[in-house]
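Quick one, tokens below:
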């Protein structure tokens, strides 16, 4: 299954559990990061004049996720990113599984609605990246565009959470799907 992999964590889980070609993973990751980087550049250009008069530390959240309040711990944010991405991966697999009445042309709508639900459910803790490219590439851009090292050092080096948690969550979601549901063909777990 190739599909519209916009998320490096989904790409990795597809490579591990669904035979996505390993030799294409790096190319997909580079493309996903470049796409998110270009998106950050576009947001910066469109809002350039506002960024010139605003305090940089108050605008960093436009580009990247982070702890949304002082009462949210890094562990809670990690959990939100992990479980949110696990649910995303479960739905991606469930709606594309040939042995499970695949969603076909409405799969993008289902996934889009799921992302809205996940943001509403888990956004309070972390801002809900669910995608390492969505957070890492904009961090690199803003570090270069004037925010400096604050892009990586803010909130006690929080930057690793929206990278690690989605990868772990996508793998856990795919593993859960294969253990509990998957019956289309032999799972990598049964080999």
């Amino acid at each position: 299954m190739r599909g519209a992999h916009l998320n490096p964590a989904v790409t990795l889980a597809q490579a591990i559990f669904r035979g996505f070609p390993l030799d294409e993973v790096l190319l997909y990751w580079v493309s996903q990061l470049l796409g998110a980087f270009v998106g950050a550049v576009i947001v910066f250009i469109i809002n350039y004049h506002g960024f010139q008069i605003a305090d940089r530390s108050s605008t960093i959240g436009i580009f990247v996720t982070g702890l949304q309040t002082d009462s949210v711990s890094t562990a809670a944010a990690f959990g939100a990113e992990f479980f949110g991405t696990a649910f995303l991966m479960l739905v991606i697999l469930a709606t594309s599984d040939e042995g499970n009445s695949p969603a076909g042309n409405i799969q993008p709508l289902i996934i889009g609605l799921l992302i809205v639900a996940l943001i509403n459910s888990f956004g309070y803790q972390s801002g809900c990246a669910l995608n390492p490219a969505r957070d890492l590439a904009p961090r690199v851009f803003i570090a270069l565009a004037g925010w400096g090292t604050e892009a990586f050092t803010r909130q006690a080096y929080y930057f690793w959470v929206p990278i690690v948690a989605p990868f772990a969550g996508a793998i856990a979601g795919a593993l859960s799907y294969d253990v509990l549901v998957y019956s289309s063909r032999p799972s990598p777990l049964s080999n």
